[in-house]
Structures are given as C-alpha cells and as structure tokens.
Amino acid sequence: MTEQILADAIRDMLDKGDLESVRIFIESEHPADVAHFLDTLEPAESWRLIQLLKLPDQAEIFGYLDLEHQVAVSALAGRRHLARIISEMDSDERVDLFNELPEEQREALLPALAQAEREDIRRLASYEEGTAGAIMSSDYATLTPDLTVRQAIEKLRREAPDKETIYVAYVIDDKRRLVGTVSLRELIVTPDHVRVSEIMEDDPVSGHVDEEQEEIVRKIAKYDLMALPILNGGDALVGIVTYDDAMDVAEAEATEDIHRVGSVGPIDASVRDASIRTLFSKRAPWLILLVFANIFSGAGIAYFEDTIAAYVALVFFLPLLIDSGGNAGSQSATLMVRAMATGDVAMKDWSKMLGREFLVAGALGLTMAVAVSGIGVFRGGPDIALVVALSMVVIVIVGSVIGMSLPFILSRFKLDPATASAPLVTSICDATGVIIYFTIAATILVLPAVG
Amino acid sequence: MTEQILADAIRDMLDKGDLESVRIFIESEHPADVAHFLDTLEPAESWRLIQLLKLPDQAEIFGYLDLEHQVAVSALAGRRHLARIISEMDSDERVDLFNELPEEQREALLPALAQAEREDIRRLASYEEGTAGAIMSSDYATLTPDLTVRQAIEKLRREAPDKETIYVAYVIDDKRRLVGTVSLRELIVTPDHVRVSEIMEDDPVSGHVDEEQEEIVRKIAKYDLMALPILNGGDALVGIVTYDDAMDVAEAEATEDIHRVGSVGPIDASVRDASIRTLFSKRAPWLILLVFANIFSGAGIAYFEDTIAAYVALVFFLPLLIDSGGNAGSQSATLMVRAMATGDVAMKDWSKMLGREFLVAGALGLTMAVAVSGIGVFRGGPDIALVVALSMVVIVIVGSVIGMSLPFILSRFKLDPATASAPLVTSICDATGVIIYFTIAATILVLPAVG
User: Considering only CA atoms, which of B55, B93, B88 is closest in space to residue B71?
Assistant: First the structure.
C-alpha cells in the first residue's frame, strides 16, 4: 500500500472517530509504513495512535520513527509507560533514543527499568559515536561448543523472542571469547546428537568495539554476513551489528560523502525537513572559505593586470581555461575520494595512481587543447591560439594531479579525504590556472609580466 | 587474517610446491578472502589453485571473483568442468557470468547444462540491466498455505542446500501467486500441527521484475527485509533479491552518484584497476562539454570588454564572484541529487524546496556580501564595493536556485538528476554570474555596457 493511501485511510477513520478500525488497520500494515505516517503528525496525535496498539507493536513502531519524533513522543509518555516501551525495544535502537533524551528524563527513566536493561543501556551508551560499539546490539544468541544440535535448536527457540537474529548463533567459551559461529540452517540439517563444536565455523570474521563503522559495513558487505560479531579489548563477545543496520550506516556514509563532494557539511536529518538555520550553517562556512581561496585567483589576475590591459582578448579564455583545470581536478578528486571510501584505493597506491594520472591527464589536456585551439585562432590569431592550447595542456595536467593528490594528502594528515570537494579543488585549480595562463601568455606574447 | 598475510602464506607454500598444504589452507579461509587473492593472480595460476578444491567450494569462490577474472578463468576451464561449476553457483551469480561470456562459449556451454538450469539461465538473462529481474535469484524456498509447520520445516530442511536463504519462505497458491511469507524463526517457535496459513504474514512487501534496482534496494532497507520477493506481470513469484545483493547495488549506485557529482561517467570496474583508456573515455566527454559551456562565460566577458578595459579592477573580483555562484549552486544541486536518490525529496516537493532555497540563499548571499565588501572598499573604493556586494547577493541567489532546480528539471525530462554535477552547475552559474556582475557594474558605475 502506498503511503498516501495509508495516510488517507487513517485520517478518514480518525475523522469519523472510529479508533477501533484505526487500530485494526494499523496492525495490518507494516510498522515501517505506520511509523513513516506517524512522523508526519503532531507528537500528541502520534502518541494517541501508538497507544491503541499492543506493547510489542508500540515498541516496534517506536524503533522505526525518526529519532527526533521518538524524543518528542517520549516527552508525552509517562515515565512507567515509556520504560515499558524501551524495555521492549531492540537494544541498539533504545540506546539511540536514550542518548537523545534530555538529561532529566534519562535520570527519571533509569530507575524504572530492570537492572539488566539499565546496565545494558549504560554500557552501550558509553561507546564513541562512529564506532562499532555505538551501533551494535546486545540481543544476540550464544551457544557453547559442547551443546548437541538438539539442545542448541531448543535454546535458540526459547530465546527467539528476545534476539535480533537467531539465524546465526555465536559459540563462546567460558570467558565469553568467540570460538565459532553456527547458522540455524546448518543446525536444522544436522542430526540431533552432533555437537555444535563439530559443525561450527572456526575463526569467524569479527569486528572490534572501537573499529570505525565504515570498516564494519565493509566487512559485512565483503563476506555477505547477516551480522558481524563485535569483540572488546579482551576478545570477549559484547555485541553484533546486523546487516540492516549496516545498510543504514552505508546509506548515511554515502550521503555524507556526496554532500562533502558538493562542499556541504554533514546533515543528519532529511534535507526535505531540515531547517533554514541548519542548511545555512552547513553551507555558509564552506562558501566563505572558498571566497578566500578565490582571492588568490583575484590576486593572480591583479598581478597580471598590465598583461590583461594590453591584451584584453585573453580574458575571453580565462573562465574556459581555469575551469577546465578545476573540472579535471574535480573529476580526479571525486574518483579518489570514492575509491578511498570503498577501500578500492589505499594510501600505498599513491605513486601508482600518480603515474597513471599523468598519462590520463596528458591525454585529456591534448584533446582539450585541440578542442579550443580553433576558437583561439578565430578569436585572437595564431599567437593567442598557441598560448591557449599550451595553457590548456599544462592546466589540465596540473589540475588533475592536484585533484588526485589532495584526498591522499588530507588522509595523510588524518582528515577526511572527502574534504577535497569539487568546489575546493576548483578554487585551488583556478588560482593555479590563472598563474599558468598569464605566465605562458606573458612569455609567448613578450608582454610585461609584472603589474 | 589480513589479505597480505594470506597472500604471503599461499605464495610461500606454492614456492615450495606444497599443493596439499595450499589446499588445506585455502579451505580454512573465507572464500571472499581467497577470491580477493586469486583476483591478483594470472588466470592460469588462479585456475590451478581453484581446481585443488571440492566442486561446491570451487563454485563459491567463483562467485566471489571479479567478473572479469571469472570470464578469464572460464576460458581456461574445460566445457564440462565449467558446466559443473556453473550448475553449483547461485542462480543470480551464474547468469551474471553467463552474460559476460563470449557468444561462442555460451553456445558450447548450454547443452552441457541440465534442462532446468538452462531454462533458468535463459529466463534470468532476458531481463534488462538495471531492473530487479537482472539481479534476482531463483533459488528461493516456497511453501503452500495448507502445509503444517512440521511439514514446512521438513521441506525447508530438505531444500536448504540449493536455496540462497531458507530463513524466509514464500507462500504461494496453485498459480504461483504470492499469498504470504513466513520466517523460519516463526516456524520453529510454533507448534508442529499449526498450518502455515495461520502464521504467515499476509500481504507481504514485494517488487516487480521491471522495477528499478534502486527502488528494490530502498524497499529492502526501509522494511529491514532479508530478501524481497519479485513478481512478474501476472503477479506470480519469479525470484527474490537478497539483502547482500541489495548492499552491493546500493554501493554501486552511490559510487555512480558520487562520480556523476564530480562529472565522471559511470565506471564499472575498480578505479585502481581501470585502464587509462576507460578513465579517459569517462572523463573526456564531460570536460569537452564543459569547455563549450564555458565559452558562454567567455562570450559574456567579451561583450563587456569595454567595461573591463575602463575598469580593470573589476577583473580582480571576477573569479571570486562567479565562483561563489557556482559553489552555492553546486551545494544546492548536490543536496537535491542525493535527496532525490534516497527518496527523501520527490518531484512534488519542488515548490516547497524553491521557497526555502530563496530564504537560505538570501541569507548566504548577504553573509558573503558582507565578507567581500571590505575587500571591495580596499581594492577599489566604495563604488566598487557596492557593485561587488550587490552582485554577490544576486549571484548567490541565482546560482542556488539554478543548482536546486536543475536536478528537478533533468528528472522531469526523464534524465538522471545526478547529471546536474558540480562542474556543470558551476559552468552554468559562471556564465550567469558574468552577466549579472557586469550588468550591475555598468549600471552603477555608469559605463558603456556594450563593447
């Protein structure tokens, strides 16, 4: 059912005051759709509808709501009721909500929770943002190596309602160290009496609580895992990251990278719903920084003012030449930024990449020079054409090499390579391009170079 | 184990000619790691190592190899042997390989396959690239509504070895129409005698063979699905797309979008391994197109040549002003491109977005005007400062609105909104900026506007 039809149907029933029909209808819809609809309502209205449902459904829909909306609705729910919902939520989702609640509400809430949940929330809340610890769930199923298949299946069956997944179980020793994994698929095709230790996958792929989320996502994607087990400093199993959370992280990371390529700071919320203030604050710093970068181009032009005054026709080619350098540089930077983000290219590949960039950029520069030399002859005669063609080759090569190198340099200094955005590379290449162009012009046309 | 250590260990054993140790070692490693290592070898060497393994392991590793490497190794494998490997591969992976094989090899291969596999390959190969049909797998498990839980589990257990997943089973009627889904989790916690129809999820989320892959990925992510069932025109179940394939598609789509934002055509292969020719051909068309876009800026400047000659100081601010428009436009375009790709913003949001863009851009323009007016006074006196400040406000607003609107316009004409790349927007805004700047200058400084 499309969201619009869902929304219309619910509104219609609400208008008629038919809450019972609303309840039955909501229960029949996918919680993700219901949550998406609730996000568009006022928190009070949203809360009224949520209360119509059974507690587990309340918790599930809560987990699908926008975090901002969860907080707003939480403010309306009584402390006891909220504690019950939170107890039912997945451990990774509830800690995300908990972290967003006001200090006061958090403190009121904790005593209302059971001991185990309180500790779980405290523990999960302690990991730094961006690490595996911050997105992991503690609702995983464990087995011990000595269990028989029959016992293992029985244990998983009993624990199923409280676990995020029972399709992979983690085999641990008495110190909670991960010694293997076993899939439910393997368990159900194996005779009852076989021991878990005989069928488990030894030496499973795992992650570390402090590992970056990108790295976790990369492992899940590379090994086609349903969940990645996460270990602490003592190699004990402390959580799992499931594929669906990995997909969300991957999408958020890609959005952040794309925004950076366009010189926009990371925006957490939806662009559609972001406030004017948020959008302004994510864009203004970059624009202002770039203005100052462009002053170098201006200064370069000012330096060659006499050359320009004597040969105003040169100005015609200025945007074309310097932008070509910026465009070639943006291309190279973009390719490197993405390749570094996906792990396709690493620091050690710099020299290989540099050599190849020279060849590609040389070929591009020559092609572009041919493309513009005709216009050069037409607009300013053979001398100008020579200046323009020569400048184009040099500018495209220099621009490409700058664009290719910048992500590596940023990464070297522990900065995000994606900071090498298209506009930043363009600005740097512009300034370089001005100098290259007018230096070549001043040399070939034998004009005064210093203003 | 890191890839480097794995590679070193294998090479060491190979040097000693100890193939038996190589076999045991390879078998103990994750097939994804082994494949990643094999990708770095010559096809002949790779094929020699693959042959050491048992057939199911050969097929699994084959599926993890780069497609190009799969084709190269396939050329070395005998027809019968290749047919056996292909029979063991997942249906979606084998059709990907099949599509890449030379015509001749495909025709030789088909008769060596069993009837069912031949038909399956023919059917899957018939879907257009980019659609759900082209990535779906036909290795899904089905149940009928009348089965008891005990019978259902028994069926899944029997079929487990041939299915991509048995954790979700698709309940179909006698016309293969999808009537529900049931998870293995639900099955194992339900008493034996209950019917599948009583516990299945009715009205499950599904996709269509002709649906775009992005849409399929969006559904899997939104509903946290393990696999999405795919229906044909007659609403019959014909395949599934699993979450791991969806993750790969999502990554490839994000890469394509990022490349487009940087004005690079879509590159299928790894950037690290792409040939000079590929890189050239993905970059040159855009660079040349952008040169011609920049000719408009040049023409704009030429039109105002007299203004410039009379007031050379204006040229100092040219890069700064026009780039600010381009940068603001790039930001807006990037935000919209990504928001449209993730489904955050749709066509119908244009007017809302436009209104907000005016406010944000106005605020940005005023801020930038303040930032540059100081330099304006310093470099050219109050008149120039006024021209520069005023131009900045107008240029930033116009640039932002162009950048924001372009993805919508492209989408309206059924083009990829991501074609509104940062460099393209920059070029368009440059030309617009030149005209705005010199028009304002000519008006305020009362200079001849026409050259």
Answer: B93
SS3 state of residue B132: helix
Backbone angles phi, psi at A102, to 5 degrees: -65, 145
DSSP B166: S
Cβ pair B360:A255 closer than 8 A? no
| Edge-first strand listing for the sheet containing A178-183 | A142-143, A168-172, A178-183, A201-202
Structure token pair of residue B94: 């084998």
How far is CA A449 from each of CA A179, A374, B94, B248, B314, rounded to the nearest angstrom? 72, 26, 65, 54, 19
Residues whose CB is less than 8 angstroms from the CB of residue B37 and which lie 6 or more positions away in sequence, other chains included: B3, B6, B7, B10
> What is the chain B residue with the closest CA to A431?
B319
Owner of token pair 């995983």: A140
Residues 338-377 of B with CB under 8 A from A: 338-339, 342, 344-345, 349, 352-353, 356, 359-360, 363-364, 367-368, 371-372, 375
The residue with greater pLDDT, A242 or A162, is A242
Beta strands in B370-421 (DSSP E): none
Largest CA distance in chain A: 94
Enter the pTM of the model. 0.83
Beta-strand runs (E) in A65-162: 142-143
Mark yes or no for CB contact A318/B302 under 8 Å: no
Q: Coil, helix or strand for A448?
A: coil
Q: Does B154 touch chain A (CB under 8 A)?
A: no
**Rounded-to-integer distance, Cα B158 and Cα B10, Å:** 37
CB–CB of B298 and A319 under 8 A?
yes
Tell me the pLDDT tens digit for each residue of B212-251: 998 999 999 999 999 999 999 888 999 999 999 999 999 8
The span from the CA of B258 to the CA of A338, in Å, is 7
CA distance A354 to A401: 7
**A387 and A313 in contact (C-beta within 8 Å)?**
no
Q: Are B247 and A315 in contact (CB under 8 A)?
A: no
Residue A312 contacts B where some CB pair is shorter than 8 Å: yes
DSSP three-state, residue A203: coil
Cβ contact, residue pair B271, A305, below 8 Å: no
CB A38 within 8 A of CB A50: yes
Question: What is residue A363's predicted lDDT score, i.e. its pLDDT?
Answer: 93
ipTM topping 0.90:
no
Q: In terms of DSSP bridges, do strands A237-242 and A227-231 run parallel, antiparallel, or are they unpaired?
A: antiparallel
Taking CB atoms and an 8 Å limit, are A221 and B271 in contact across chains?
Answer: no
CA dihedral A83, A89, A92, A94 (to 10 degrees): -30
Pair B342, B217: CB distance under 8 Å: no
User: Is the distance from CB of B416 to CB of B256 less than 8 angstroms?
Assistant: no
Considering only alpha carbons, which residue of chain A is nearest residue B162? Answer: A185
